[in-house]
Design the sequence.
């Protein structure tokens, strides 16, 4: 396609995340247009398409992908619908940005990996947006430079003011720690081989039945040990931070910054309330990079393999939560497509 | 115009700043396209237009503005050419984003103010991009909230590794301090009434004939006192910071942050090397906001009056440098168009 | 004794630590004098006593304690000599400041506990000097205030530029982690019930045979989980830090501070090279508080029980290093003397 | 005297500052004893001496200095009484630590300088305690190292929560800015040649008649320009900071630090409420260093010349406040005794 023609995108799923991506593509991203949307709820689909020139509304994802002017697909439907949407996109050879998780479990994720491997070329970028955060990018760059020698340990912090109703122990791993799983694999360039979970007496602010906080430990193929403080009802704000300990130095990203205020007997500043504020730039940058790469005819960013490996590590993490013991991560063989 | 049609923009001037804006409009900004470019150097104009679908190249700014599909103008030519370009845009009723300075001196800036006032509506946004920096925006928001009471003083820091060859004392005011002049007026919502300049013994790193650093002091209509450390050959990096002192608290923006590194016996991080890195987001945001407002049919941001008032304060600043005494700023009456 | 008469102190051991305490008592501490010194090496003892009015030199600790004007004892001899020195002090009813470790193992430490318990009153303060560091004191005060609710986790960092020759895995626990063991017990007011040790691939800078860094995990009677990054060959400096995670907030001590420097493209400052610089104030404050309490006729600070409990946790830590599994800490019953 | 005999000190003045010094000498300082006290109020003198072995109480400073066992004098009476006390000490050849100000005005300070110069040796250390603050000491060390080249500018901040009743504009200079005057002279090793004072519209929190805040500017013999934000009713705490701008780098001391807390949607920490907390260590260190030097038979620290030069700069500062113009500092010739 001409690099001057906007990329026509079918957005699958128009709930909270899908609607936000539609807004982004329509008003923030350069070189993209929303060409079609799909949602099981026809009213919601129509509402999402309203006011966007030439954007059609559908209830069937495959129909949206077949709409005129569609060059690529952004999958933002619930996780259980991802495998079908990806299969439809593969049938049409369309590049995809697929929100995380790739699929809800390792078995289905492996099927997607195998399907893409059969195609013989990558079509999918998985939505692990932390890889597009400026701080993490600078940390990655520093580690890759070798300035601090080999990386030995990672210390992650993942704090959230409060969990929504119905949040479970398994969701602590699948929805929250999955980010540290991806960041760990990406920063180190290693696979996670085992997970332990240590559970202190829960906070009084944790909902009944939820073991919050937890200390989640990873072992890697490179022999690194990584710990994550997961604290999802800390009350005071959203904090995501990572310190990488190398042989000759450490580097930390995620300290709050911005305005330094002196008032009321205190120095300091405000903590971002949630991931939307904390990672707004990362979401914008992720989508822009995907659009740019797609217009150039390339696929970059987190792959289906990354989505599968994260799913496998999550399954081990949930087992480790339940048993209190070290749980090994078992991975299938890595297809050549993913190096 | 339809909000779905990209805004067609004529870029006047394709030197360093113009070329960067063309890149931005073409690959970063949402909802815009470069429809025409103009440069006195026809080769440079042709080179700038190359590879952009439907973009025409011109040597005459007015011809570029008359090209098909031009909805708005971005003026990035040298300052002395601005008045003519603005006059041409006014003749066509085209909205303009005009790089600072509005014009090189207060007299010509006042002519532009009067011309726009005669039109009876605003067409021009002046390129004081610091108003679009996240830190300054948060500082402005805090001051406007009244949380710290009335603002009493501002402390500015403006440091640069080195000046280019041929930099003069007057350029210290006109090219560098002009940003503190605009930020002071904007943050406080007051005019600057007088300027003093104190000159320490220059740094050995200052080029012969340049009095660097300097301490530049402003008085305002609101009785505030603002100081600026201007140090353009500090060697160690680019730092722009501002602390606002209110009746009940202070707030500071511009501290370096990002990765915190421990290595080689030191904690800390790197300093941005220049304004491009420091204000990249501000430039992007400035242009996006201008495109968005223009597509909505409105004009926002710094006005011709802001450009004129800055020029008048710069003239006082250069006088104050020369005489060593307090120099009063004299402003013409403010047309109703600018409130 | 009159509160105006200086406290006469016998210093047992005049090696590096003993000599430093003699210097401190002689030139820094208020209300104390060195009345006698003892060292197996008579020349070293004589050298230590030289120039101090009325200070006698001995080779036998008991003789030093029996010297005229001795009101209290500071034990700074090697750990294996502590039990005998404490027994001699108990026989004379003399108050003691005993450098850590109380004794080299839990069995001998328990004998000291039982001997003091038989006396029916405390005589010993153990030299866990971190309890006298300003940062840890403020952290303790905050946790005790309940402002952040119950404490759930502690994150410790313990970094050192390099280990001396001959340093072993067991010494990582007994000489280094012992401080985190004491701080954990003191901050939380709980006993440590189990220790795990996770061992990443060692740094290339670690001497052959030393598994450095390590991640050491504690469980406590209160159900807290505490992690310690122990990294004794990090190269870049000495860093000891602790973050306490409570139900409603976290607090961290140990970030480097002091001068903030901009130079050479970097912001930041220097890292203290070692524990002498980092904890100089804590050593001074520890000794002054001990002298003040002793002159008032009271005993405060870390007790023999604290020394014993640390020894028991160290033994579990060394077991955990060897087995790779969780090692339980087994404590004898706590005598009433220690509440 | 034997270095093992405590230095016997007569404390002149037992008000707030005197009583604090008596406490310090009696319970904190090594190698000193309070041998006599003097106060115009005999009850207050007796109360101050109570409980200190061998300490006698007097109403006449000269009588206190003549008491048995007095080796040195600490003058903490009100400023107008200093000249007489110093004269009495000179008559007896006693070393003196004299609280600032040396005397209340430049004329009387010059008389003291001349009297000491006639003695032909220094007896007096003036109580500019900031020179003993760790942060300022490190800043001084850095500047003296030449690592940042020649110092070009200093930026001082001096903030206080509130002024006591009856505080006047002149006291802003004489009681507050006098510290920046001394620090500027000491850090730079230059004299202050002129003072300007800029006065913004006062804070609503300033008492009627007090122009608070003010911006006070110094010129120096070395051509440096130094600014001080003086804000004595800032409400939020006590902050004293200084940034030195050199040819190749800057360095700042005085940022608050200590515990970093996350709670209630904010990161940061507490601001010290007053100079007692902020400079506690500096007061202790100042007195210890004076006692140590006196026992060695030497006189160090800020001299009578420093006290006189500060008084002369204060007089210029008060003139500059009143006139709004630059006020030159006029100094007498420097006696050889002060190099």
Sequence:
């Amino acid at each position: 396609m001409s690099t001057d023609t906007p990329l026509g995108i079918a957005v699958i799923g128009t709930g909270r995340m899908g609607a936000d991506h539609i807004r982004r593509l329509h008003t923030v991203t350069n070189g993209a247009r929303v060409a079609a949307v799909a949602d099981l709820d026809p009213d919601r689909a129509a509402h999402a398409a309203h006011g966007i020139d030439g954007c059609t509304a559908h209830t069937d994802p495959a129909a949206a992908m077949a709409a005129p002017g569609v060059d690529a697909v952004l999958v933002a439907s619930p996780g259980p619908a991802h495998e079908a949407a990806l299969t439809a996109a593969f049938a049409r050879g369309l590049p995809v940005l697929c929100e995380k998780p790739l699929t809800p479990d390792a078995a289905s994720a492996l099927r997607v990996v195998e399907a893409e491997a059969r195609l013989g070329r990558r079509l999918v970028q998985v939505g692990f947006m932390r890889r597009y955060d400026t701080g993490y990018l600078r940390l990655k760059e520093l580690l890759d430079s070798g300035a601090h020698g080999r990386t030995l340990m990672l210390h992650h912090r993942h704090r959230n003011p409060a969990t929504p109703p119905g949040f479970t122990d398994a969701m602590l791993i699948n929805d929250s720690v999955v980010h540290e799983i991806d960041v760990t694999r990406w920063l180190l360039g290693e696979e996670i081989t085992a997970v332990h979970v240590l559970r202190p007496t829960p906070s009084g602010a944790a909902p009944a039945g939820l073991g919050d906080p937890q200390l989640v430990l990873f072992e890697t193929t490179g022999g690194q040990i990584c710990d994550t403080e997961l604290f999802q009802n800390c009350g005071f704000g959203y904090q995501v931070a990572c310190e990488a300990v190398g042989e000759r130095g450490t580097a930390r990203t995620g300290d709050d910054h911005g305005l330094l205020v002196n008032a009321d007997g205190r120095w300091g500043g405000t903590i971002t309330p949630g991931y939307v504020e904390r990672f707004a730039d990362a979401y914008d940058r992720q989508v822009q990079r995907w659009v740019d790469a797609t217009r150039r005819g390339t696929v970059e960013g987190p792959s289906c393999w990354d989505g599968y490996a994260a799913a496998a590590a999550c399954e081990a993490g949930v087992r480790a939560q339940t048993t209190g013991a070290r749980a090994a991560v078992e991975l299938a063989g890595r297809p050549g497509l993913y190096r």
